[in-house]
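Researcher: Here's the sequence for the chain we discussed earlier.
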Amino acid sequence: MKLRIWPAKTKEKRATVLAGLILLQAICALFFIGDVIEDFREDGHLDNPHLLLESVAAIALVGGVIFLMIELRGLLSRVSDMQIGLDIAQGHLADIIETFFDEWGLTSAERDVAIMILKGLDNDSIAQVRKTAAGTVRAQATSIYSKSGTDGRAQFISLLIEELLADNQHLGSAEAALNAKTTNAASPDASGETT
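Model: Thanks. This is the structure I predict for it:
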């Protein structure tokens, strides 16, 4: 199966054509509404089959215009969401991960360690690659987990994957997770002691 991706200009043309059709339908609806009003002024009742037919057509056209406008808005929203997904797939994943790192306030060294954690390296391997002590890498990893509001390597990786799959609504969620963890840590448990 070959995935067909439309260029941006084609998408814009399709949206423009659809908007043009909505406009044409709106003009037709206005024509029918005007005709119904004029016929009603002349005749005075709605029992004329011609007037009734034009009234139904005008109502249907207005309903169609409203429906198509709602559909166009939804379509444009879905296209935008799909573009975000394509951006991720086309190599913008690093930019999105950097956004997370900015939110968490990671230092340059912590960013390097976090990337290597995401690549699956253990602390000793990271220390060898960075030419630092394994204890330094462990301290940096602990700081990364703390800043991201996670408890360890698996939860850190899971958080990023979950946020990437959640339609990129990640802004503030890392902060919310950290706040929830801080609130839980500072709240007294059932015995009245702070956990």
